[in-house]
Hints:
This protein has helices at residues 4-19, 23-35, 37-62, 64-68, 70-92, 97-102, 110-116, 121-134, 141-173, 177-193, 195-199. The chain is mainly α. It has one domain. The chain is globular, with a radius of gyration of 18 Å.
Amino acid sequence: MTSLAWWLSLTLFAASMTGSPGPNNVMLTASGALYGYRRTLPHIFGIMAGGFVLFLSVALGLGALFERYPLIQQSLKVVGAVYLLYLAWKIASAPPPNLAARDGARPLTAWQAAAFQFVNPKVWVMGIALVAGFLPHEGLLILNALVLALVMESVAFFCISFWAAFGMAIGRLLKTPRAWRIFNGAMGLATAACVGFIVT
């Protein structure tokens, strides 16, 4: 477990999985643009907390439920797809920042973001691949599971923060309500398109 090649491979895996486009990163881009990086931090920490618990659970044996009971996986797909379409609509219909503040709009909370990880099939796939490819056979299972989950979320922080900061940079370029409507509509469509990852 102290092999340099193992650590490097695990880090690259974490970066490619958490940094690639998907429901979380699309929503973080939209949130960063509309609310800024600081107000998006609870969303970021919620993703990390939910992912940590999920990865730890998969490493400790929860992932085996998918193999034994396929209905659980199908149910998660349905719930995830419906919730993602709801979030896509919320993003697409969000007003420009000045109107959003007046209407009391706010970014996803940490609890909402954490809960979403459990109906996000991409995160489940990441967890199963993580355990299958990197969980050491020697040593304490709980310690190995903690190490994997901690590495994943440590790398994830920088990767998903990039998407929120990227959104914030885009938000500074949007000067008119029409530009905001176009951007929010595009982000809503991109979020809805992520349903394709779920149903396949």
